Amino acid sequence: MTPGKVARRARTTLAASGVCGLLLFALAGGAQGQGSPNAPGATTPAQAQQTEGGLQQLSAPAGENLAAPSQDSYKGSLVEGKATGAVLDLSLDDAIARGLRQNLGLILQASAQQNAKGQELEQLQALLPTITGDASIEVEQVNLAAYGLKFPGLNPIIGPFQVEDFRAYLTQSLVNVPALENYIAAKHNFAAAKLSAEDARDVVVLTVGNAYLVCIADAARIAAVNAELATSKVSLDQATASHDAGISPRLDVLRAQVDYQNEQQSLISSTNQLAKDKLALARAIGLPLDQAIRLTDTEPYAALDNLDPQAAFAQALKNRKDLAAKNEQVAAARAQKSAAFADQLPTVKVSGDYGDIGETAAHSHGTFTATGTVEAPILQVAKTRGEEEVAESNYQQASDKLADQIQQVNADIRDSILDMQSAAKLVEAAKSNLDLANEELSEAQQRFHAGVSDNLPVSQAQTETEQANDQYISAQYQHNAAKLSLARALGVASTNLKDYLGGK
Hints:
By secondary structure, this protein is an alpha+beta fold. The chain has a domain at 81-122 and 197-319 and 390-501: Up-down Bundle (Outer membrane efflux proteins (OEP)), CATH 1.20.1600.10. It is built from twelve helices and six strands. It has helices at residues 3-17, 19-35, 45-59, 92-102, 104-125, 177-244, 250-285, 309-319, 321-342, 381-450, 456-490, 493-501; strands at 88-90, 130-143, 157-175, 293-295, 347-360, 363-375. The strands form two sheets. Strands 2-3-5-6 form a four-stranded antiparallel beta sheet, covered by helices on one side. A two-stranded parallel ribbon has the order 1-4. A hairpin with a 2-residue loop joins strand 5 and strand 6. The longest helix has 70 residues, at 381-450. The chain is elongated, with a radius of gyration of 39 Å. Mean pLDDT is 85; it is low at 1-64.
């Protein structure tokens, strides 16, 4: 039983019990003066919790959320459905749509947003009225002699007597600048979490789109290796026929067999790589790993010209949600700076309670208390200075991270444009090189078939053709990946991806 409750009950008992009530009231009053929650300068549990919460928020980096996803989270997902016996046709649009539903990074970002909303509500409560209630029934017996109170002719044993108390308590802050600033900071953190969730959609599109492009490149390599395998088979058949006819030595057959087996090994390796990359794609979009899929998009090469880095950067500043989120984090850190400074200002609050107290419900009476409190710190220089230092550090970190992120966006845009321009030239050069390699291979095969030379030039031409094919496929992938990265850098990957992968 708290001293405050003893005091209220003593006041009620005073009206009915005369001297005994007076003695109890005096005892309870002394206890209240020592440790009453309403005594000037005392700290209630609610105030202590509020103060600790404020310190905890100030000591953490602005906008930090433990529920936020890491970069590796975007490679995972929550599996949707079960594998079917049929092969699933999967377009790029289908893959992205699945990723936007099931990707783990996006799901965790939604949880981080919910976390930030909860923190905002927690900070709001410090500005709202707090109402609690309790009900108690107690039976007491008091020995006055134990307190040194002895009166001739008066029995020191009082009671037993019963006290019933049903009561509601109200606390309301009228002026609390630190709580207000902390709430403002929490609102900005929640806005940052919402913007980060929107930005996460672009990250999902980048992750899924790149995984799909890798699979397309793998499929192109398998097609190229199959063509090279067919060509090697033709060369092997020619070498075998020439050797059987006594025209060419056994060395030509052995060389052709080595080339053919190398192509078989390349086919096995390329097929295995495609299977692994399909697993990575399935992991990112929530498909069962044992679900067979067939890619239906090929994303052919299409140039994307007339790109102005400065105009693209200006567009990114308007579209990038992560930049807007960091702006909100800076605003939150600024509010926390104000909260740290305001911690040395007076606060004003009112509190009160109302209830019904008596021996029984039928023999009771209403009682109440109302208290207005103004509290002001007198000597807490180290605490206030420490909070201000922490808040200033968090604000400076948030501002520096924003400035760095802006420059990183600018760099990402320029890198993507340079990569696209370079990859476009590589595509043209690799295509020309591939055409020349195919022509050289045809000439070498014709010369060998005519008996003009052995098949060493054929073997060399086949190797050069394989290298030219790999370079051409890699250049196409690099070009499409650079366009995908540019869409992400501009903040439009989730809305205008086809405009970039499809060219203009």
